[in-house]
């Protein structure tokens, strides 16, 4: 999914200087962003107060939207570099096309994982014949310097491992949780899991004390470590935890995101992740000039133009403002 902001701001993310090295309960409110003509998303990362959770650097939550009489998601071809995109659905379908020739319909609780490496472009759209509801999350994972120029590729995993407990089913999206490991490729110590809780459930999930974590509320009413979280909000939890208490007031869906705090400082602008302003400017020039990012074939529409770069110099701000 693209960042469609027409006035995208340059920002520096990463580095361990602002990692919270102890458990916290920091509730992050979303910013509403229009995605294309018919989809509004709630953007949780980057946030006014926090920019990364481990290598997770971008989180959008959308829906559930009634698109029975709407085109649904329509995101034209656009570029990425230096990151992985994670497509995750609770309802509906998304058709993915990219410049390495992938064509894949992603369905609920199937992993669509695109590794941009040095450069890729893709489009996302609801199929012409689609389900009534569309509900999901789009997330980015920053690639570390040693792997940010890997060959671009796309992975689709319809079957993912599960961790179960009374009233809880956890689907492991990326990384490892309680001994269950996702088949998706990762380049830093990381975890992403979908937590489905039955009404009335009180349970906990094991955590790595060296990871920092956050929980995205997808649906229902739940308490995370005693804090009520509403759909479309995210609770940042810091580090130093060995388990996370959960309580469901109704059937609820959560996403657990975590990872080892990211060592490197990053420049993230529009749909690019780099290390310098000059690198970002070159990527924009390459996209607008039709080189490097390839061509998405089969999408009915023009590629998305990049916004103008800001005239102000880049000011490092670390992981938080």
UniProtKB/TrEMBL annotation:
* Taxonomy, superkingdom: Bacteria
Q: What is this protein called?
A: Pirin family protein
State the organism's lineage. Bacteria, Bacillati, Actinomycetota, Actinomycetes, Kitasatosporales
């Amino acid at each position: 999914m693209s960042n469609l902001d027409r006035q995208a701001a340059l920002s520096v993310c990463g580095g361990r200087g602002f990692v919270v090295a102890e458990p916290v309960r920091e509730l992050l409110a979303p910013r509403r962003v229009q995605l294309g003509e018919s989809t509004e998303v709630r953007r949780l990362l980057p946030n006014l107060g926090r920019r990364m959770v481990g290598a997770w650097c971008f989180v959008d939550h959308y829906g559930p939207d009634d698109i029975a009489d709407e085109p649904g998601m329509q995101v034209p071809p656009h570029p990425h570099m230096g990151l992985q995109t994670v497509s995750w659905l609770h309802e509906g379908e998304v058709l993915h096309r990219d410049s390495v020739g992938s064509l894949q319909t992603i369905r609920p609780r199937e992993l669509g994982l695109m590794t941009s490496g040095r450069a890729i472009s893709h489009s996302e759209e609801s199929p012409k014949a689609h389900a009534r509801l569309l509900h999901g999350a789009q997330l980015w994972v920053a690639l570390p310097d040693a792997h940010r120029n890997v060959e671009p590729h796309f992975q689709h995993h319809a079957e993912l491992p599960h961790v179960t407990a009374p009233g809880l089913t956890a689907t492991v999206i990326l990384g490892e949780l309680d001994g269950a490991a996702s088949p998706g490729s990762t380049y830093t110590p990381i975890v992403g899991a979908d937590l489905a809780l039955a009404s009335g459930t009180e349970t906990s999930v094991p955590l790595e004390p060296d990871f920092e974590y956050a929980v995205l509320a997808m649906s229902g009413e739940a308490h995370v470590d005693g804090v009520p979280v509403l759909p479309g909000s995210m609770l940042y939890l810091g580090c130093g935890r060995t388990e996370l208490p959960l309580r469901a007031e109704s059937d609820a869906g959560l996403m657990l995101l975590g990872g080892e705090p990211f060592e490197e400082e990053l420049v993230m602008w529009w749909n690019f992740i780099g290390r310098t302003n000059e690198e970002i400017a070159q990527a924009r020039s390459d996209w607008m000039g039709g080189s490097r990012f390839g061509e998405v074939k089969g999408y009915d529409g023009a590629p998305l133009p990049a916004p103008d770069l800001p005239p102000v110099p880049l000011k490092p701000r670390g992981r938080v403002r």
